[in-house]
Amino acid sequence: EALEDDLRQAMQEAGQLYVHYQPIYSAETRSVVGFEALLRWNHPVRGLVAPMQFIPLAEQTELIVPLGAWVLETACAEAATWPEPWYLSVNLSPVQLEKIHLVREVRGALDRTGLAAERLELEITEGVLVAAEGGEISRLAELRRAGVRIAIDDFGTGYSSLGYLRQLPFDTIKIDRSFVRNLESDSSAQAIVGTIVELSRRLNREIVAEGVETEGQFSILNALQCHRVQGWLLGKPMPPEEIASTYFPAP
Ligand code: G
Ligand code: G
Ligand code: MN
Ligand code: NA
């Protein structure tokens, strides 16, 4: 297929593929605590191609394995230049999680870039975790033992049972934007988010709310004692140069 050939080509030359970073804030202090790495592809003819279009293709062809390794290494190198307390969050594809060399690859990226394991969080979507097999669960557990945090992405969309959640190796829950979107208009969305926050506190896990676009949503999340927030209200994904000019020398 044409797009697949173009993606292979893009992976061989500099410039088409790059990483943007979206800030994540403490809900309590409203200061930056970390950034999520988001892959971008600027195609020479088509222009920007959305990740929703090319990531599934990269997964089908397993190009996501070298591509994901490249994102991880690039983002770790970038994060190693940030002020100490800030962390980096990187999305992991289920295809990467399937591979037995994942743990070695993550350790290698940390070693080569000098980023402390404690400053890296890896996001896995809830649906993937629910379907994960023994080997995949043990890889996540091994990453956690190495100090890396695991986040469940798009939480609320993947049908995990509460009993199963208890057994999963993770540190953070990222509440899907669909719940945040309706917070102001729909009291059941508030009840659901409040319950997820309460559950995560009891399990000693942290909560990140995604897709926060309004002050109203922010203050509801703050009142519900959500730990961290991310969304256009606070900051859009940005190129690495902009991080330094916008946020350094803070904190
Ligand atoms: O900004 P946004 O359009 O980037 O992201 C759309 C989707 O693409 C999100 O679900 C996000 O998790 C996914 N995505 C973005 N970057 C990466 C990446 O580096 N690896 C993987 N596996 N998914 C990514
Ligand atoms: O699935 P994941 O959470 O990894 O995807 C992150 C995606 O969410 C990216 O496409 C990013 O650009 C997008 N995003 C980030 N903040 C907002 C927001 O406030 N509103 C909306 N609609 N999308 C957002
Ligand atoms: Mn994510
Ligand atoms: Na998400």
UniProtKB/TrEMBL annotation:
<protein>
    <recommendedName>
        <fullName>EAL domain-containing protein</fullName>
    </recommendedName>
</protein>
<feature type="domain" description="EAL">
    <location>
        <begin position="1"/>
        <end position="251"/>
    </location>
</feature>
<dbReference type="GO" id="GO:0071111">
    <property type="term" value="F:cyclic-guanylate-specific phosphodiesterase activity"/>
</dbReference>
<keyword id="KW-0472">Membrane</keyword>
<keyword id="KW-1133">Transmembrane helix</keyword>
<keyword id="KW-0812">Transmembrane</keyword>
